[in-house]
Structures are given as C-alpha cells and as structure tokens.
Specification:
Order of helices and strands of chain A: HEEHEEHEEHEEEHEHH
Distance between the termini of chain A: 20 Å
Largest sheet of chain A: 7 strands, mixed
Number of helices of chain A: 7
Strand order of the largest sheet of chain B: 4-7-10-11-12
Number of strands of chain B: 29
Radius of gyration of chain B: 37 Å
Oligomer: heterodimer
Strand content of chain A: 25-35%
Distance between the termini of chain B: 73 Å
Strand order of the largest sheet of chain A: 1-5-6-10-9-8-7
Largest sheet of chain B: 5 strands, mixed
Number of strands of chain A: 10
Helix content of chain B: 25-40%
Shape of chain A: globular
Structural class of chain A: alpha+beta
Radius of gyration of chain A: 18 Å
Largest interface: A-B, 101 and 112 residues
Structural class of chain B: alpha+beta
Number of helices of chain B: 18
C-alpha cells in the first residue's frame, strides 16, 4: 500500500480558515477569548440579565462553584468575546473590526444536527457611526465569496439581547432560504457594560454556526462525526 | 405562539391576506413563521414570539396589531362590553401585602353561573391553537388570555373563606395544585390565600381546593399583575411553566387587567344566562404611566443606513399605536402601555427599520481602518498545523466534555459529559486506537493525529498541543515513538523553537502533550509581525462531497498471483476490480491496492488488498469467501496463477 504523504486539516478548521481569509480582505482581525466564561461576560454584559426569559434561548452548562465564588459557564456563544475585546480597548478607544472563531457549548440533547459542543464565528465592528446597511454589505460580501457570487441574503426582524435592532440572516442556497446567522447593531447596554460610551461608540455584530456551514456545503450527514476523531471523515477533506 | 387566522380576522373589517401570505409578511417583519396548519375551516399560524415582543404579542390582539401595521389594514375600533352590575353581590375583600410582587389585583364575584361544556365556536377557537376545552368558565378565562394576553383565574367562590390575601408563603406551607400534585412552598413564592391557606401560586397555578367544577355556582374572577422575576423563579423551581407563567415572566403591563376583567366577565355572562356580576375590587396603588422616547430622525437614518423621512417614521409609529409629536428633526414617541419593548432610541429605530422593511436596504462596505493585531494563539496554532499536516498528521477536534475533571458541570445531561477535560492526550490516545482498527480502510500504515485545544486543569483554562502516533504496520526500526520523535524534531526545526520531549508510550502508541502557551510565547518572539496572509491558507474545493461511511465492520482479503512478465500491474488491478465488483457490487469499498510485487523466473508476482463492507449489516467470512472464489476463477480463466 502507498503511504499517504499528507495529513488532513479538520474540515471545521478549513472552513474557519476560509472565513478568516474573506474577512481579512475587509480588514477584520482574529480575536479569541476563554471557553470557561464568567456569567458576566456570557450573559449579564450582553444584556441578558439573570432570571430573564432570554436566558431560555440557550441551554447552558453551568460549572459547579464553591459558595461565594463567581458563577461560571461554558460559553454558550462567542459573543462573550465582544465584551472582552471592547474592555481591552476601553482605556484608549478606537475603531476596530474583529472576527472570533471558537468553540461553544450548549447543554442539550444531541442528535444528527445538535451537538453539545460546536463552533461559532462571531464578527464585531465598532466605530463612531455604524449602520445596518454596512452590516448587510459586509455579510453579502462574505456569503458571495464563501458560497458563490449568485448568493442572495435577506434580513428578518429578530431578537437577541445583545443587539438592537436584531435580525436573522437567511441565505438563498440550493433553491431555499436557510437561516444561518444572527446579527444586529450592538445594544447600547453592551457597549456601556464593556466600558465604552454608547453615545460615542456604535457597532454591529453577527454570529454564525460553523458546523452548520460544513454540513451544508459538504453534505456531512451527522454533526457528531465532526468530534469523534474518526479519520474516515477527516481524511476525506 | 399559535394563532388562528379566523380569530385574527375578527379584528378587521377588511379581508385579511391568506394565511400563507400573512405568514410570509409576519415572517419578514415581525415573527418567524414556524408552522402553518389547516384545522377544520380555519388555519393555525405558529409564530415565534421572542422575549422582546412577548410583552404584547403573546395574544391575538398583539398579532392583529402587527398584521394591521404590516399589511396596512385598519383595525376595527374596539368595543367595550357594557356589564350590568348587581349591587346585591358583595365586593371581594382583597389585601395585597407586597405591591412590588403584585402591582395590581382585580377581583370580582359572579353569581349563579352554570358551568358546562363550551359552545362549539369557543371550543373550536381553542382547539385550533392547540388548547384544551374544559368548561365554560375555564375556557372563558383562557380565551381572553389568548385574545388579549392577560392570564386570568377563576375560583369557586363558595370554597373561599374570608378575605383574599396576596402574600409570600409561610415556612412549611404546602399547596395541592389543579393537577393533584402537592407542592412544598418556599418563603419566596407569592401566593393567593384565604383564611384557610393557599388558594393558588400567584400567576403559576391554581389550587385544587377552590377549583371550578361543573358543580360550581358562584365564582371569583382574578385579573392581576405579578412580578416577572418572582413568577419565573417560582414556576421554574416547581416545574410548572405554562401559558400563564410565560406571559407574566415576560412582563406585561398592569394596565391590561381592567380590559381583560371586563371582557372575561362579559363572556361568562354570555355563556351562563342568568349569571350576575358584582362590582370589581381593584388594588392598584401605582398605576402604569406612559413614557416618552425622543429620537432624531437623522439618527434613525444613520442607524439603518438608508434615508428615513420624518413623515415615514411618524406614520409607522402611529400605526403601531404610538402618540408622536415632532420638533424639528426630533420625534417624541409615546408608545402604547403594552409596548414595554420601546424604551430607548434604538428600539424606535428597530421598529421603523423592520416595518419599513430590510428588503429595500442596500448593503454598503465599512470604511477602511487600521487593522487590529491578530490573536497570537490563533496565529501560532495555524502555523503549527501548517507544519504538521504535510508530515502526515490529521487534525482531530475531540470532546472537551469528559466523565471526570477538576471543573464539573452542575447539571450534566449525560454522565460522560459531566466535567471538562484536563488534558488532550486521554481522548487522543483513544482515537489513535480507534483509527488504528480502520488503518486498512484508511490506507494507512501509521496513524498520525494532532489537536490544539483548550484544557481545564485545576489551575484553570489553557491551550494545549497534543501529537500522537500509532505505528500499525510492523516495520523494521520504525516504532510509534521513533515516528513521534522525528516529528517533534521536524516541528522544532521548522519553527526554530523547542517543543517538548515528554513522550508517553502505551498500547495506544506514543503521544506528546505540551503547554501551547509556551510555544506561542517563543514563536511570537521569533515572529513579532503576524498576519493572516503569511499563513497562506488554501481553501478546500467547494465541490468536494462527503461520502458517508459504514459503521459495520469491514473484512480485508489479500490476493497474490503470478502473471507473465508482459502483464502489467494496471491490467491485473483492472481485472481484479472488475471481477470483485461483479461478485460483490458496492460491497467492495476499497482496492484492489497493490502492496507487494517481485519478479521471478520470467514471471511477476503481484499482491493486492481488497476491503469489503456493507452499510446494512456485518458481512460474514463465508459471504466474502464466496466473492473471492469468483475473483480466483476469473484470474485462473485468464491463465494467471493464484498463489
């Protein structure tokens, strides 16, 4: 048998690399943050207060803590890095564009399309004036580069605590609309929680599931295969 | 929120768009349409009402108003039912102990009710939206809740002793609720009580003691407002989340109680001829006040990124029921009391943008700004992968949730996902073994894996690098350890830094795990300027299609034959492939792959390997032997000698 010369990147990594490359052309840099997060960064600072129904939108892995210790979670979204990055520039604020690829966790029953761990790709642009039209232009450019120049996108009114207005982004793919991304203008409460002045600083943010894009583009039939370490899948990419 | 198309129609004089068309409009501008179902002559639309719009849209009235705004159809003017009061019926005495937890409590006695099955029109309305018809009184309270969004409750008045007191539970207090469950209460639970004890858990569930049954003659109707957090905490703790608790926990305006009380009384009187209503008790110390949001139209335009005119903004907001006054560029918006989502200028911007519609919005690019630095860990991880992949390593992303670790999950769904991994090597070693079993199928003599990921030891989260090798095929002078050592040397040479020398050896092969943060530090010192372009990412082909694999075991068969020197490898392989495919069809999943060849006495010996596997079952040796017999006879027929 001929020994295979080359190994294979995980398809999640390949897709993230491609996404990073497209956003790089629009001036977005890669930022990262912890997976074991404080309740503040994952929820409170993102305008999802305790005992608020918005908390039900995500099933959370809470981590056991000792009495008196600050509550910790496995981050349920990469949006927590929004707050961390804004905090890091709060002393000397300036405009920035970042994307955050990373692993996130949801405490829910798993099946072919749901897994307790998966990957998200977050984007954040902060400047003195930011619009929904810029958000749309940015996502349009991304999806056209990523999926083909004939790709169409549409915004639908929606809600996520950390944006206002909030929208779901659908793409027209293989003759139907698919919901692939949540987005909106960063909520003033979030900007304030991170230590910036919401009167001066505005932003847009978006987040999408990477696994879903892998499944969609390559026809992988079960999301759980992505984390089983099985080379029968990985070595096909 | 399930809504009935026919029910919505009652709010309009004009004919509503068809359910499909209406669903499409609401989907684009307000609520995701999750389903559409014909129920008899009616159609149910299942709309996803998210927390920001749950203050006003978990009811037909709220959805009708959205439909009116979006489809530009006027709502009928509301008609307030006139109720003839019977002065002889005593008012309900109510004491509210905590106005923060219960901002408003309305109660009314209705006598001489006749509790029976609801008429068809009422039970059909409820059935369409998936609610159960119970009896005239309960159905009336549910109907009004689904109509205007105010949860209501009715008690059997003859089973209530003394005054109604709204208070927190006493230590050790219990209640048997309508479904028969006994619930132990906590001192943070708000109750509706009488002189005997609890009658209901406020906003969550009624008690069995004063339940309305077909024998009930007199009732007390409750239309109240309860604190969202209190209702949420209690309903979550006692695991009773329902249509009532859902509305309260999302916060509804206390102004709603009065209209709902009026409407439910009128409906009960209509359903129960001869019933008589007493006057209402209304404990309402701090009535809801209107508020005003000021926003400039130029700010709204800059938020949306398309011009919004003053007239357009005013029109949209007025159709939503807001009072709008204009001063120069600034509009002062006074929303209806139930629009608790319209608080800050951005909320007004959202209203205008979504009603105007995102369809017209033209995308533009963001201005160029000086880019932020790329995250060092990300950059270094991709650099390391760029070295390892060409050396034959495949990247795995394994589960971060494991059975045991320093950080434990509070409420794990599965016992094997109850903690965070402390290191990568445990799962990676296991993966070496699992992939080793498939080495033939994968066409590999050596399994080479790597992972860069977060680990969570006692000292806290950090990034780790793990590289593992399992030498499957025996080869002189080659071991898992030797391959791994060569790899680490190659990696160190390529990066110009020290990686690690702590190799762990076992039946799984050889693995190395090292603190990736040290590598990031060393590599960043060597490469202070880091950017994406230098990583030279090569995109995967978009046309690549994943081929599913079978989870059943596979069977490997080798065939060696002598052929005349003039016969080349390709010819033999083609003949074997044809014969094996003819015999086994799609069960031949790999091969024939040449693994040995030599010449002797003017003849050539070729050895090929073939793998058989089914998607439906475990293949037996006998089945595969039968395929091979056909392959042998084909080869013999060609004059080749099967060894």
């Amino acid at each position: 048998m001929k020994e295979e010369a080359k190994g294979h990147l995980h398809p999640i990594t390949s897709v993230i690399r491609e996404m990073v490359s497209v956003f790089d052309t629009m001036g977005f840099s890669v930022a990262q943050g912890p997976e074991l997060e404080t309740e503040f960064h994952n929820f409170d600072a993102l305008n999802v207060p305790p005992d608020h129904p918005a908390r039900d939108m995500q099933d959370t892995f809470w981590i056991k803590t000792k009495p008196g210790e600050a509550k910790k979670v496995l981050r349920t979204h990469t949006s927590s890095v929004q707050v961390r990055f804004m905090e890091s520039v709060a002393k000397d604020p300036k405009a920035f564009k970042i994307v955050v690829p990373g692993k996130v966790y949801r405490n829910e029953a798993t099946d072919a399309t749901h897994e307790a761990q998966f990957h998200q790709f977050e984007g954040l642009y902060v400047n003195k004036s930011v619009s929904m039209a810029e958000l749309k232009g940015t996502l349009e450019k991304f999806f056209k580069d990523f999926l083909g120049t004939d790709t169409k996108i549409r915004f639908r009114s929606s809600y996520f605590g950390f944006v206002e207005p909030g929208v779901e982004v659908d793409i027209w793919y293989k003759n139907r609309w698919l919901e692939v991304c949540g987005a909106g203008l960063v909520h003033p409460h979030v900007i304030k929680s991170a230590g910036l002045d919401p009167k001066t600083w505005k932003g847009f943010a978006f987040g999408m599931g990477v696994d879903r894009l892998v499944l969609m583009r390559y026809g992988v039939d079960d999301v759980r295969h992505l984390y089983s370490g099985d080379l029968r899948l990985i070595n096909q990419f | 929120m399930k809504v009935s198309h026919a029910w919505l129609q009652t709010y309009f004089k004009d004919i509503l768009p068809t359910p499909e068309k209406l669903g499409e409009l609401l989907n684009a501008h307000a609520f995701e349409l999750e389903g559409l179902e014909k129920v008899g002559s009616d159609t149910m639309l299942d709309l996803k009402v998210l927390p920001d719009r749950s203050h006003y849209a978990l009811c037909h009235k709220g959805i009708a108003r959205e439909a009116s705004v979006i489809a530009k159809l006027p709502l009928k003017a509301p008609i307030k039912a006139e109720i003839e009061l019977d002065k002889a019926i005593s008012q309900v005495a109510v004491i509210v102990k905590d106005a923060k937890l219960c901002p408003r409590y309305m109660a009314r006695r209705v006598s001489n009710v006749f509790v029976t099955q609801s008429p068809a029109w009422l039970s059909e309305r409820l059935t369409t939206i998936g609610a159960r018809s119970i009896n005239t009184v309960v159905d009336a309270t549910n109907y009004v809740m689904f109509d205007v969004g105010q949860p209501l409750h009715a008690f059997d008045a003859d089973k209530v002793e003394g005054d109604i007191v709204v208070r927190l539970a006493n230590p050790g207090e219990k209640i048997v609720v309508l479904d028969g469950r006994e619930i132990e209460l906590k001192e943070t639970d708000l109750l509706i009580t009488d002189s005997v004890g609890p009658l209901a858990i406020a906003g969550v569930k009624g008690g069995k003691r004063a339940e309305v049954t077909n024998a009930t003659k007199n009732i007390i109707i409750e239309s109240a407002n309860f604190n969202p957090t209190s209702v949420r905490k209690t309903s979550t703790r006692v695991n009773l989340r329902n249509d009532s608790s859902k509305r309260f926990e999302n916060e509804i305006t206390s102004a709603l109680c009065a209209d709902a009380m009026n409407q439910v009384t009128a409906l009960i009187l209509e359903l129960s001829k001869g019933a008589k209503a007493g006057s209402v008790t209304d404990i309402y110390p701090n009535p809801a006040k209107q508020w005003t949001v000021n926003v400039s139209v130029s700010y709204v335009s800059s938020m949306v990124g398309m011009p919004v005119s003053l007239a357009e903004a005013k029109d949209i907001l007025e159709r939503q029921g807001c009072e709008v006054s204009v001063s120069g560029d600034v509009i002062s918006v006074t929303p209806p009391l139930d629009r608790l989502d319209m608080i800050i200028p951005e909320d007004i911007g959202d209203e205008i943008a979504r009603i105007k519609g995102y369809g017209e919005l033209v995308g533009v690019q963001t201005p160029a700004i000086s880019p932020a630095a790329i995250d060092k860990t990300y950059y270094c991880a991709e650099r390391v992968k760029n070295v390892l992949i060409p050396l034959g390593f495949s990247e795995v992303l394994l589960y971060a949730l494991v059975p045991k670790g320093a950080f434990e999950v509070a409420y794990p769904l599965a016992s094997d996902k109850s903690a965070l991994r402390e290191k990568l090597s445990a799962k990676l070693s296991q993966s070496l073994v699992e992939n080793g079993r498939n080495a033939d199928l994968l066409g590999l003599e050596t399994i080479r894996l790597c992972e860069i990921g977060k680990v969570f030891p006692k000292t806290g989260e950090k990034t780790s690098l793990c590289i593992g090798v399992l030498q499957v095929k025996k080869k002189k002078g080659v071991t898992s350890e030797s391959v791994l050592k060569e790899t680490v040397s190659a990696l160190e040479a390529a990066l110009g830094i020290k990686v690690s020398d702590k190799i762990e050896i076992g039946a799984f092969g050889a693995v190395i795990e090292t603190d990736f943060e040290m590598i990031v530090k060393a590599l960043s010192e060597k490469t202070p300027t880091q950017n994406v372009a230098d990583l030279k990412f090569v995109p995967l082909s978009h046309d690549k299609k994943y081929v599913p694999f079978s989870h059943y075991p596979f069977i490997t068969r080798d065939i060696a034959l002598f052929v005349p020197a003039t016969v080349l490898e390709g010819e033999v392989a083609a003949a074997l492939r044809a014969a094996a495919s003819k015999a086994a069809g799609t069960l031949l999943v790999k091969g024939p792959d040449l693994f040995d060849a030599f010449s002797k006495d003017g003849k050539t010996s070729f050895a090929f390997r073939m793998i058989f596997q089914s998607f439906e079952k475990t293949l037996s040796d006998d089945e595969v032997n039968a395929f091979m017999q056909l392959v042998y006879s084909d080869a013999k027929g060609r004059g080749w000698e099967v060894r």
